[in-house]
């Protein structure tokens, strides 16, 4: 490394450096500034898009809960055309409306589509839980077991094992159901779910 002993030598060295590297530095500076500006623009753009999506979600949710066929169509259209958390949220609401109407096939499709739009593990767990319940209600025990198998959070395990036990019982696997209910009781869960698991475990133990 060169050591410059006089101020003039240092100034001359700086001049030579800029003469040799000035263009590259300017380009780098411009690119750097452009990247920052581009990032800021992109963040602002995403924020605006999300705000717009939130407003549309509110409008579509209101239509959906009116109970009209047009409301369901609007919700399906919004879910298909939106690729953010609000798409997953409308999918959950659409599934609930479908369940209330007895349309379990629509509920399953809405939840399956919502899984592809969910952005957080918590939402994925919630959607998988509701999907498993809908699948079990349709008699799709294997699908329900697969769905609860995708639930990760410890706080969901008691409820997940409850559904898993029901699905195994549906398949005629009493031993598997007993093991699932037992595992659910060993997990963290509310008093309500623990009471339900205890009742089911007692019932399956006498079969």
From TrEMBL:
Transmembrane portions of the chain: 23-42
Organism: Providencia vermicola
A Pfam short name: TPR_21
Location, primary (coarse class): membrane
Membrane topology value: Single-pass type II membrane protein
Domain Ancillary SecYEG translocon subunit/Cell division coordinator CpoB TPR: residue ranges: 15-205
Entry GO terms, CC: plasma membrane
Protein name (record): Ancillary SecYEG translocon subunit
Recorded GO MF terms: protein-containing complex binding
